[in-house]
Specification:
Nucleoside Triphosphate Pyrophosphohydrolase; metal ion binding; Hypothetical upf0131 protein ytfp; NDP_pyrophosphatase; about 375 residues; magnesium; alpha+beta; about 35% strand; globular; 17 strands; six-stranded mixed β-sheet; NUDIX_hydrolase-like_dom_sf; eight-stranded mixed β-sheet
């Protein structure tokens, strides 16, 4: 039986990824579904659908689907808690449609495919590519639990295509013969087999490399130019723990991953509110940089943020939903620089932001 799609799978690049074959091989035609209305969903950038006698849902019908096609579609849609139901289309033909479980989502106003493609299409295709890469390896329930981080990793790949640092460095050829995801949950680990161009124009032998696949993050050092002090946060960190460092609780700037659909600036303001209870004024970009380009995809957008750092702004913060336990501290600029110059700052983004602040501090104070 053919399938009727009313939502994001009407976007051919996404449908190609899910089915694993080009659009030219897909039997597809426009169709309508009477008695239903497509609605936006409060929980995410995808549509829901509801029964309404006076409505008509626009969509497409896809026919000639193989058992493998159905299995792939079930796998992808299952992560959104959607299941197949048989319906009658506007032309009287019978088809199946993926409908959400009752009460699964909070339905809102109308949903637009064009708006979704503009705002979410690129990221969603990236996320779908990762989801379908687990087909046959992980269950639908596992994918549902991983999906927030899948989307965040997808957002990082979109950001990477939009960012091009004009360093004037060599741009050689890289031939990737194999890329395997050997671990994936909150983070991921990929192994590569590749060869790359040398500076003399020859290619290296095939080599094996591994990379820790993380997300993009916004990092914020709040600074009060009137009181000439900064706010730092303190929390338990897994890196020092795994390394065997006695200093497991670390002083650092506010930081957090850039969620799908957020700009780095939006993340910077949200994380400062969540972790330190602060509303910041102007964000001053410090830099955009890799944490360690030799072994991780983690990428930082670092800011110094102008804030009102009165004596009563410190306390305990963080989101209970993420089991965060974060303590904030006020520190004078001079004390911060004493920590940096004395080699007592173990956090690279804090060091970067502190030395940027040292360079621009007079200007910021003059404008305060």
């Amino acid at each position: 039986m053919p399938l009727f799609f009313y939502g994001t799978l009407r976007h051919l690049p996404l449908l190609e990824i899910v089915l694993g074959r080009p659009a030219t091989d897909i039997d597809l035609r426009p169709a309508t579904l009477p008695g239903y209305a497509v609605r936006s969903v409060a929980e995410g950038p995808f549509p829901g659908i509801e029964a309404r006698p006076d409505a008509r849902a626009e969509g497409v019908v896809v026919g000639a689907l193989t058992p493998e096609d159905i299995a792939r579609l079930d796998y992808y849609e299952g992560g959104f808690d959607y299941d197949l139901v048989t319906v009658t289309l506007g032309d009287g033909a019978r088809a199946q449609v993926y409908l959400p479980a009752a009460g699964a989502w909070t339905l809102q106003g109308p949903w637009s495919l064009d708006d979704w493609v503009r705002d979410w299409g690129e990221m969603s295709c990236e996320a779908a590519a990762e989801v379908m890469g687990y087909f046959g390896q992980k269950s639908r329930d596992e994918i549902a639990g991983m999906f927030p981080m899948i989307r965040t990793r997808a957002m990082a790949r979109v950001n990477a295509r939009r960012t091009d640092h004009e360093q004037g460095t060599f741009r050689g050829r890289v031939d990737v013969t194999d890329r395997r995801r050997v671990y994936a949950k909150f983070f991921a680990l990929d192994e590569f087999r590749l060869s790359h161009e040398r500076f003399d124009g020859t290619m290296t032998p095939q080599v094996e490399r591994a990379v820790f696949v993380s997300t993009d993050a916004a990092i914020v050092l709040p600074y009060d130019p009137v009181r000439d002090r900064v706010l730092l946060i303190e929390q338990m960190r897994m890196g020092p723990l795994a390394r065997g460092d006695a200093n497991v609780w670390q002083l650092e700037p506010v930081a957090g991953r850039i969620d799908a659909g957020e700009t780095p600036e939006q993340t910077a303001r949200r994380e400062t509110r969540e972790e330190a209870g602060l509303e910041v004024a102007r964000l001053h970009p410090v830099g955009e940089l890799y944490a360690s380009p030799g072994n991780t995809t983690e990428f930082y957008y670092i800011y110094v943020a102008i804030a009102d750092l009165a004596a009563d702004v410190t306390g305990i913060g963080g989101l209970a939903s993420e089991t965060e336990d974060i303590r904030s501290h006020l520190m004078s600029f001079d004390d911060l620089m004493a920590l940096c110059d004395g080699g007592n700052v173990a956090n690279a983004p804090l060091m970067v932001a502190a030395y940027w602040l040292a360079r621009h501090r007079d200007e910021l104070r003059a404008k305060a």
